[in-house]
Design brief:
Shape: elongated
Helix content: 25-40%
Order of helices and strands: HEHEHEEEEHEHEHEEHHE
Mean pLDDT: 95
Low-confidence stretches: none
Distance between the termini: 18 Å
Strand content: 15-25%
Structural class: alpha/beta
Number of helices: 8
Length: about 240
């Protein structure tokens, strides 16, 4: 049963404004160089389409990391957020299916013996990773032998990768391309260890809002809206996710 717009607005904008959480750590999706200006990027643009469809004004609440944003799910600060789907987050957040995907892989230093993705999960291999990022959560439950070395941010994960001579740096492929340019001889491994699905979420308990957003995302993918937003923002390294199964 399709929820009424009144019930959707009551959950997404209980004070009359759609309050949206944004993950500033994902530079592919959000840009907010000047805090006094409105954020730009794929995620804010998609959120604006939600606000337009339900007929309410919008306000953005930026977070430095996705972990901090997910931890604030029931704080009341935001009523809707755009972030990666992760099982650990599904305890507190109801997600739509992904609207786009980003490959996650590894950067290895010059002369590294690691040649393939599967080579990395070995005893003695240390992987630098941003704490509570979607790929950190994925690797934390998937790796059998390698050791994760967590850092507070993407930049910090690169810095410790270099300073401590770690064997691999995990991250989103487009970001690793930028980091590779700083390290002569370094290589990005072919393939991916996962694809990070970016979705829209609401705090658990908002059944009308969750149902509406699941439908909204499927329509946005099928109509070409997500592809248009990606193209308008000139972002490379992301792909429109397939239909929900």
């Amino acid at each position: 049963m399709t929820p009424s717009l009144d019930s959707v607005r009551a959950e997404l904008a209980p004070q009359g404004t759609l309050k949206v959480g944004l993950n500033l750590a994902n530079f592919l999706l959000v840009s907010m160089k000047d805090p006094s200006l409105a954020p730009t990027g794929i995620a804010p643009d998609l959120a604006r389409e939600v606000a337009r469809e339900i007929g309410v004004p919008i306000e953005f609440f930026p977070y430095a990391t996705p972990g901090e944003m997910a931890d604030a799910a029931h704080s009341g600060v935001w009523n809707m957020a755009l972030l990666a789907v992760e099982p650990a987050r599904q305890n507190v957040i109801d997600f739509s299916a992904p609207y786009l995907e980003i490959e996650a892989t590894y950067l290895v230093p010059a002369n590294s013996p690691l040649q393939h993705i599967e080579d990395v999960d070995r005893t003695g291999v240390r992987i630098s990773v941003m704490h509570k990022s979607a790929y950190d959560l994925y690797l934390s439950r998937s790796l059998k032998h390698a050791q994760l070395v967590q850092a507070a941010s993407m930049d910090a994960s690169f810095d410790q990768f270099v300073a401590q001579g770690l064997e691999a740096l995990s991250g989103l492929r487009p970001h690793l391309v930028q980091e590779q340019a700083k390290l002569p001889g370094s290589r990005i491994l072919d393939g991916r260890f996962t694809a990070i699905g970016q979705a829209i979420g609401v705090p658990k308990g908002g059944s009308a809002a969750a149902a509406f957003l699941r439908d909204f995302v499927e329509r946005a993918k099928a109509s070409g809206l997500v592809a248009q937003i990606i193209e308008r923002n000139g972002v490379q390294g992301v792909t429109v996710a397939g239909p929900a199964t």
